[in-house]
Input
Amino acid sequence: MKNFEAELPQNYKLVKTIDAKNVKIGIILNLIAVAVVVVCMVVAYFIIGVPFIELADMIFGGSYAILRLAVLAAIMIVYVILHELVHGAAYKALTKQKLTFGLSLTVAFCGVPQIYVYRKTALIAVLAPFVVFLPIFLILCFVLADPLYKFLAVFMLGMHLGGCCGDLWVAGVLAFKYRNNAVLMNDAGPTQTFYLPCMEESSVVNSEQTER
Output
């Protein structure tokens, strides 16, 4: 089965667009990401059992507080870069096409804007970072004994889950709304557009009207 089309077939029409550069969508995604981090931190606080004041002092107190915060910021930046590189590695392995990387005010991104990828390829590439990093951060949460390191591991887990909310949205559209393998997706990075053959488009519309 082909992984992509170099050009959009003539009988395909645009059926949906997800644009993370849209200010409203960008704000919503980032608010969800922050909420996920907060929930993870609250859960970690009760599980670890260390008073919040002590945890805050471990992070912000002492003569090395600035260094610790700088290291945390560096880890966060490295994670964002690795997240996008994993997207890119999946796309490169499946399509061998030129990748596009970038950063906007609302999102960091990787895409393959010159081609149209089929559903299976899109799902693999979109979910790759979620699948790769989730077990890593979960393992760190359980194996790290020091409360400070454990708390920071949970923070990174929350950042990972929150940072994947856009990816999971795209994956959900592909997994549940457009379940036909004929669907094509153009991933420009911050924007994903979905296309279906004309007959399939009519079937989707009719199905949605029936459900209502």
About this structure: Residues 65-95 form the longest helix (31 residues). The chain has a mean pLDDT of 88.
